[in-house]
Amino acid sequence: MKRLLIAFLVVLLAIIFVSCNNNENQVTANTGTKETTETTETTETTQAHVHSYGEWTIVKEASCEESGLKERKCSCGEKETEVVPASGHDIVDGICSNCGKAITNEGFYYILKDDSYYEVYCVKCQDSVINIPGEYNGKPVLVVKEFGYRDFIEVINIAEGVTTIGKDAFRELPNLRKINLPSTLTTIEEGAFMNSGLSEINIPDSVVSIGNQAFYQCNNLTSITIPKGVTDLGTRTFEESGLVSFVDQGSFSVIKSGTFMNCKKLKEVTLSENINIIRNMAFWDCESLETINLPDSIQLLETGAFYKCNNLKSITIPGSIQEFNSEMFWKCVFESIQITEGVTCIVFNKEYEANMPKLTTITLPSTTKSLYLETSDCPNLKDVYISVTKEQWKSIVFTLDVRDCDCQFVVHCTDGDLQPSDLLSGM
Questions:
Q1: Domain edges within the chain
Q2: pTM for this model (two decimals)
């Protein structure tokens, strides 16, 4: 019994010891966990993760009209995205060079004609660059009408297919600088660019007709070339424009009345061999004109065709004209005139006042049959040269009017000179 009691006490003590030891270990373990947690939190606080993104990758390509999307990633898997703006159209002659799309403007109004083609008008367009289409609703746009009287238009691109620029279509566009015309264009109608700011134009070979006053008062237009396809150039086409040089490669035969009237800056004119007639006032008061060729095809120069071209110092009259009258060059300040073989009738006559006040030298052809000369018409005339003998001179019907001015010139024949006294005695 005693032994049994002792054994029970031993077991009881052992249980108590083990229990105390476990409690201590638990306290220690709890304390260690707390310390570990505090250490981890401190480390995380001092070494927070910083995203390191890679290169951008395009997810969706941007187009001319629609935006795109790009993204980049961090090593932790985090993504960052960004919108790529639409690039917008790069328009060249009405076509986007990026996407190839034909671009037209809003605010156009179309009228169907004969159920076969459209005329286009600017009703509410507000763009500085105007792109006129060659097709609408499956039918061709052939005629451009009424885009004028708008100060915001600077550039106009007309698509292939358009054939006609209508009357006054681009009139009064003060800020218009440039227009691109299609190879299908055949007609530029009356007043098409009247009083516009146009400074640059290339007329295609397809153009056949240019209407009256088409470029009237285009003060910024300094040069123009008329292509070979043009068969008709209207009256007063370039009146009061800023032209400095004009090149005619056309097929028309008449320079009409007032074509270059009051072109104060015009200096140089090149005419084609197709010109037969230059009408009255064609070059009226072109005070800067210095050079013009009169081709052998010309048959008629009308009165006042070159009125008051003060810088035209000399001129050669082709033999194709046959009849020359100084009134063609009324109030020009020629110093010399050369009339080539073929001209038969020559008249220098007074009109209101001295017609050619600075003329000193005239060269006449041997084909001269009649010569009428008023000394008051060319009061400073000194020398007349003619390729005939003095005897042949007698066969020329020569009329000398010295009512208002003495005869002071000498006629130089191939075999000697005729002095003023000789000329007067033969009257």
A1: 313-427
A2: 0.74
